[in-house]
Each structure stands twice: as structure tokens, then as C-alpha cells.
Amino acid sequence: MNRRRFFRTLGGVGLAAAFPSIVRAQTLGLGGGTAPSNRLTVGFVGGGGISGGHVAHVTGDKSLQLVAMADVDRNTLQFNKDKISQQYAERDGTSGYDGLRLTKDFREVVNDPSIDVIFNCTPDHWHALPLIYAARAGKSIYSEKPLSRTAEEGVAMVAAVERAGVVCQIGSQQRSSNEFIRAISLVRNGALGKIKRVEVGLPSQGGQSHAFLSPAPENVPDNLDYEFWTGPAQMIPYHSSRVHFNWRWRYEYAGGQLTDWINHHYDIAQIALGVSDEIPHTISNIEGQFALQQLFNTASDYSFHSHYSNNRVIEVSSRTRMGIRFEGEDGWLYVNRGEMEYSSKVLKSMALPTQGWSPSGSATEHRQNFFDCIRSRTKPRSRIDQAHNTAMVGHLVNAALRAGAAQVKWDAASGKVVEDPAVAAQLRSNYRGPWHLPA
Predict the structure, then answer these.
(1) Counting CB atoms within 10 angstroms of each CB, which of 39, 84, 123, 260 has the fewest?
(2) Taking 80 as the threshold, does the pLDDT of residue 33 lie above it?
(3) Which residues of 99-128 are buried (b: 16+ CB within 10 A; e: fewer)?
(4) What is the reported pTM?
């Protein structure tokens, strides 16, 4: 029985009950070691900037082994090979590690039967296919946010994970940060009284320093397979300022700062209001501004109001202070990464209640929560279905902006935009062949 099937078989059974009563400590990896049979093997799809922290976590944990990485940039693969070898050398006091398999094609990683866990660290337009294929191959998956580039992708991704029954954590790591957990706990447990207003500040568009660069096509460097990098997205001429970090500012690849941050601050506001299992029935007051330059095409600034059941509303603007401000009848609080502000000293010093709302999973770092859930077969803190609901807000707003609509209505029963074909058309995936979105 392999590791993956073993962990599936455990189900809700405790680990201790699954082992015989007399087992040598070395076999179980006790006494400072980890038995090979208990070590999870890890593969990465994408080795760019966002992967760095994930790689460091994996190489720093002796119960994990990084064995493969896929990336379409040869220089990125070489950089990671050298870095990972050094990290293992420093951890184990050896001369390095030369067991990392490198490939351009992500399918060689997700279909490898020896790999247990996949980290999906690709640009947004590549989030869907590696995740779906990995789920079908029975892998546990940590995938970066936002969940998807399009609404259709999100639906297919959720379905693939649910059918496969695999553990899937989305990289909305603020769900595991102390300041955000505290803010949610205070709101959900009534410390502010009835909530009157929720304001979310998200970033304005990045990449504006490129506004005066020539948009003329450039030659593709030899180290990059630009055809494979583009993948299912629509092909546009190569420009170095549109690859790696700045792909975020093109609708062909992503949705700008809106979709880049929707699964952070907005996600926290949803949890605090108890609406993470919903898509807003109406998004109103949609406004956007677009920079006058040709390299990028997503909104440079944006604002909107999301309306949920029971008259709960989240106000969003890229011109509002970054973070989340909750206003209640009995006080207010503001939270951002590494900072909290309160309307009173009483709120600031208030102990979190032992009853009522609390975060799911053990009180651990986001990646550790993922690995804990693999071993316990429990739901991770950032579930894929909730990540889809959050990403849908960004998709709906961007669709409205591109269609020139100031409001969009969503019918949860049919899963469709209400009476606005121009907005609905912007939600489709429009894959470039030979790639297609699996049914």
C-alpha cells in the first residue's frame, strides 16, 4: 500500500490506532528521524517568486522531501536546483542534494505516482489545469490564490477536488495570521455589537512605472518557452515587462490587483460577516479607471459594493486605506497585516472568547495547517469552495468593468449572471488550443 492510499484509508481513524501496538521507534521515525514510509514527497509546478517561501518550508521539514519541479523558464529551474541543494546541505550538514528532477512540462510532475503533494505556484492563467490534473491523479494540493482566472475554471476546479476527495489548501494565508484571526473572532462573537459597515481597502494597480515603455514586441529569450508559458491564454506578442511578476496587469493572464488581493482582505471580511459560503447576489456601484498605456489593460483603480443575504454589505475601494475596517454599534476595529487599531482600550485588551467562532484546524502556520490536514484527512483552513466564491467577486467585477456595467446580479440557483449577456460573456474561459478545460 503506498503512502497516498494509506492516508486515504485512515479516514477519521487516529494515527495511533492504525499502527500495531509494538513497532520500533526507528520505524516510526521517532528519536529525531522520519521513516521513509512516513515521508511525504513533494513536487512543485512553477518555481517563480511566490514559490520561495513554500520551498523553504518543505526543505526545512524532515518529514517532507522535495523531489521534482516544473517550470518553462530554464534559468528559473537552475536557480531553484542550486538553492534547494544548498538548503538541504545546510539542513542536513551534507554536500547538497542532487535528487531534484527538473522538467518543463508540469504533467510530468502531477502524473508522477511517486509524488504525494503538489504545490501549484503558477501565474493565474495556469492555476486551473495543474490543479485539475493533480486532483485526478489523487495528489494533495496547495494552490496559490486567486483560485482561478475565470468563473468557468473555478467551477471545474472545485468539482475536480470534490470528486477526487483530495486535500486542497488555497494560499489565502491571512486566514492563519493572528491579527486577522483576532479581528474575525471579535466580530463574529459580537464584541462590536451589530455590524453597521465593512470597508475593505485593496491596492491600486502596480506596474505603472512601465507606462512610458514602448509596447513594441521583443525577442523571446532562449531560456523561456513562451508558447508553453502562454498556454491556454490568448497569445499576445512577447514583452519582458509582461512576463514574471507583471503578467498580473493583463486580462489574458489575470485580473489586476483586484483578483490578486480579493482572496486576502476581502476574504477576511467575508469570514467575519459569515458569508464565505455565498456569492453576492448583487454587486453595485461598480467603477473603474484604466491607465493610458499599452503594455497593460486591467483596471488601475476600482470600487464596488457587494450585497449578501440578510442585508450584509462589503464596500471595496482601491482608494481606501489598505486593510479592513469593521464598524459596529458598540465600537470599531481596523486590521491589516501586522497591525490592529481599536475604538477603545477595552476592545484592545479583550480576551478572545473560548466559546463561539474559532478558526478551523490547529492554530498553526498556513502551510503547516495544510500538511496537518493531509495526515488527519480533515478540511484545510482555506477551502477550495470558499476560495471560488471569493474569486467570483473579482471575476464578476472585472466582467462588469469590461462590459461597461455599473451593476451585476448573480443567481445562485442557476449559477449565472442575471439578464446581462455582455457581462456573462466576459466570464467564459476562451481557451487557446490545443489546451482545453476538462469537463
Answers:
(1) 39
(2) no
(3) ebbbbeebeebbebeebbbbbbbbbbbbbb
(4) 0.90
